[in-house]
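Incident log, structure service

09:12 report received: a user says their structure output differs between two submissions of the same chain.
09:20 pulled the input from the user's history:
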Amino acid sequence: MGDPGKMSDPELIRAAIDASGLSARKYAEMVLVRDERTVRRWLAGDSPIPKIVREMLLAELAKPKRG
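09:34 re-ran on a clean worker, output below:
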């Protein structure tokens, strides 16, 4: 994974979903509390991620990994 701050919206949301270990649908419902269709639009690059959500994703990716 590159520098999360320089990732495109689709790259950022995909990295956050992958890091969570959840499906895109579960991540949309449980973490983002968003409709799955909205997250699909973000993944496709059809709609920009709101700034507050982007900041939350960056914070999540910056957390140390549990292991």
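09:41 both user submissions now match this output. Likely a transient worker issue. Closing.
09:42 reviewer note: The chain has four helices and no strands. Helices lie at 9-20, 24-32, 36-44, 51-62.
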